[in-house]
Each structure stands twice: as structure tokens, then as C-alpha cells.
Diaminopimelate epimerase (Haloactinopolyspora alba), 284 residues
Amino acid sequence: MSAEATSIRFVKGHGTQNDFLLIPDTDATLGEQLDEAFTRRIADRHAGLGADGVIRVVPAARVPGHEDLDDVEWFMDYRNADGSVAEMCGNGVRVMARYLWESGLADGPMLSIATRGGVRTVHAEPDGTFTVEMGHAKPASTRQMSFVAVGGNTWPATPVWVPNPHAVVFVDDVAAAGLLTEPPQVRPAAVFPESANVEFVVDRGPRHIALRVWERGVGETRSCGTGVCAAAWAAMRRDGVGAGSTYAVDVPGGQLSVTERPDGELLLTGPAVLGVRGTVDTES
Ligand SMILES: N[C@@H](CCC[C@H](N)C(=O)O)C(=O)O
């Protein structure tokens, strides 16, 4: 380790196998070190620790623009594995809440966490799962048709923001998307100016769907909480069911559920798991 390098603590966690490196930054001194290059290095599955995303756990009072939130002590500083910054992470916010509770940094059973996409409140459920108030889904502001293309195949897509951008595609078989070695193309660019996460969705039964997801800034992952909300919201519109409905959503890494409250708030329920802890140097 060079003279300038520092040792940083991390905790590995996952929600339905969407996995994260949580970096506690309780005195807000690590922001500059946890940059794009460092994130890429530690998130790398071969040369680093491996993760879909990195979450810097930092006091909201020390994050410009989030200093004055009532009853919100913590901010989720989320980066995808490629180092890009994202609005928030539906699986990660459950894992972060569990970490804060188990570390004694917050009291339960309810915790509000600030994110770039707004404040999200997490509730610890009696059965050991966690429910997140995910906000309202926002459909596209234009009626322009949207598409997802992979290889030679193109499907119509439903664009929706939760608040991360998503393109939801209904297919007969999730295998139709192929191996997904390249990012799916989302079109037109005017609808998706910041690109999008893509969900390939099939029906499993009444109010029960399954999906594969390509995460912007990562690749194909085993789950995506905002993507699961986007897919359930799109399926509810397609099925013409009213608010108050709950959909079960199978992902490669497990199962989540999404309820749309009568006021339109989406509730995402699922597990949060904490695992390996250790330290990593800021310079390799
Ligand atoms: N895995 C997350 C979403 C993470 C951000 C996403 N890749 C993006 O760039 O929008 C989730 O569980 O929601």
C-alpha cells in the first residue's frame, strides 16, 4: 500500500442477489476517493471484490442539497458497477436500512433514507422482509412509440421512471432476449435521454410475473428493485387492475412483491441480506 492509500471498511450485502458493497462514510470524508475509477475497481468480479453497485452510506447533512431534510439522517450515494451515478436502488435501499439498524446507526422499525431520486422510507416487516415506499411511477411525457432491440429482434416497450429510467418489454419467453452479452438498444433517444434499464417480462399466472433485467451501468443482473416496480406497474396498466393490487415478481435471484397503494405509491417488499465484511485499500 502506498503512503497515500487508506484502508476503507466495506460490508457486502444483497437483495434477491442484486449485490452491493456498502461503504460506511459516517464522517463524510470519503466522497472524493470513492470516485468512478475506485468504484469500477472494487465492483469488478475478477480483479476486485465484485458487486452490481456500490453504496456510500453518508450523513445527509453532509451532502449538498440534502442538508435540511426533516427526520432523514442518512443519504444513499449510489454508483453502478461501471462507476456511473444512479438515482437510487430499490434492492440496495433495503440492504442499507438493514445495515444502519444492525450497526446501531439508526432505530427501527421504520427509516427514511435520502437518495438522488428522493426520500425513501423502509419498514422492517414482522416476517423479516422489508418494504420500501418507492414513490409514484412516472410514464413518458410523450406518446412517441418506444422500442427495445437486441440482435435482430425489436419489441415495443413501455417507458417508465421509478425514478430511474426503465423500458419494460412483455415477451412470451424470457429466453427470447438471448444471451444479452451487449446492452439492449432503447429507442428513440428522445424518450430515453439517459439510456434505461430494460426488463423482459413474462406472465406466470394471475398477478404473477417473472423477468430478466439488464441494468444500465452493470449488465444482466439477478434482480433490480426499481425494475421490478416498473414491470409490475406496466403489468397492472396492461391488465387494467385498480390501485390496491399486489403482484408477485420472480427474478433470477428470488421473489419480490409490488403493491400499488390507492394513492399511487408503489410498495416494494423483499429480503435484505448482509454478508462478508472487510477492508479495501483506496489504491491497488
Ligand atoms: N439495482 C437497482 C438499480 C440500480 C441503478 C440502475 N442500474 C440505474 O442505472 O438506474 C435497483 O434495485 O433498483
Notes: The two ends are 7 Å apart (CA to CA). The chain has a mean pLDDT of 96.
